[in-house]
User: Fold this.
Amino acid sequence: MAQTLTENTARNRLTRTVALVGMMGAGKSTIGRKLAQRLGAPFVDADTEIERAAGCSIPDIFKTYGEVAFRDGERRVIARLLSDPPHVLAMGGGAFIDPETQSATKAHAVSIWLDTDLETLYRRVVRRSNRPMLYVDDPRAQLGRLLEERTPTYSTADLTVKGGDAPADAAAAEAESLLVAMGIAVAADAAT
Assistant:
């Protein structure tokens, strides 16, 4: 499992993995890193792990093998990651939509939906060229369709943190508070 922390100064510890779900551009990786830092937990980005397992980029996987093969690999990698000790996991935008991945996530983690509006999402994703689901004539319309299709599934996550233009630190603090209230993040001295 990849870990981005080198120093552990957190007040709380995780008792279960925390999976961040939501649309591309919702801030899962950015907020996930901040949350992991606050909790003294490892951070893992599922997309990075998928690329590592495949030996190529996600756009290359889509181009060479197609979305079905990508989703199959994504499902296998996330299942492996969910079996690791507690960590913060940023999942790809379509991962939680897969029934098998959603079921595994619910069984092995606490899911947090980063609910972010279309305008914010579009403003963030338009800056990057690594979004194969948006390789279409009208990426904004495609993003809107995906958001509409996926929202009912995202809304089944255990917790919701409203995304948007607030600083990532604020969203990470809100997520930490919710996890403390659920007993998923416990005082560091109580977790040992």
Remarks:
- The helical segments are 28-39, 46-54, 58-65, 67-82, 99-108, 118-125, 139-154, 168-182.
- Residues 67-82 form the longest helix (16 residues).
- The first strand starts at residue 12 and ends at 14.
